[in-house]
Amino acid sequence: MIKLKHSRQRDAIKDALCRRSDHPTADEIYREIRETDPHISLGTVYRNLSLLSEIGEIRKVIAGDGREHYDGTLEPHNHFRCRLCGRISDIFRADTPPLSIPGFAGRIEQQSVIYIGVCPDCLKASEDTPT
């Protein structure tokens, strides 16, 4: 793991992300942090999220909605994006073995799967809507 010079702002960004489970964008994290640190810039948030993702302290999630989301949960898991409300949820599966691909001689260290569909809340709301 790369040793970085300590940064109060980087700590605040990582802490804000790790307190959340909704896979926020950089803009959403920026708005949250500005409440306690009005001097932080959006560029600082973007740079630190990129750095934290590159060194493996957080995960960048590309969910197919045209935006980059971030995840503070590092244990192996996949994601689900609701096509109606846009919410991104974690999917943990204990039965997922390490991925191996026949004919590929390298070592896969991480995978990212995005399931897209309708979340339970939107599904229930559509069932409750009179036709």
Folded structure, characterized:
There is one protein chain. With 131 residues, the chain is α+β, with helices and mostly antiparallel strands. It is 32% helix and 16% strand. The protein is flat. The mean pLDDT is 90.
Descriptive tags:
4 helices, alpha+beta, 3-stranded mixed β-sheet, 5 strands, 131 residues, flat, 16% strand
Stretches with pLDDT under 50, minimum 5 residues? none
Number of strands: 5
Radius of gyration: 17 Å
**Beta-strand residue fraction:** 15-25%
Number of helices: 4
**Average pLDDT, all residues:** 90
What's the topology here?
Layout: H1 8-18, H2 26-34, H3 42-54, E1 59-62, E2 68-71, E3 78-82, E4 88-91, E5 114-117, H4 120-128
Helix pairs in contact: 1-2, 1-3, 2-3
Question: In brief, what are we looking at here?
Answer:
The protein is of the alpha+beta class. Helix content is 32%, strand content 16%. The chain has helices at 8-18, 26-34, 42-54, 120-128; strands spanning 59-62, 68-71, 78-82, 88-91, 114-117.
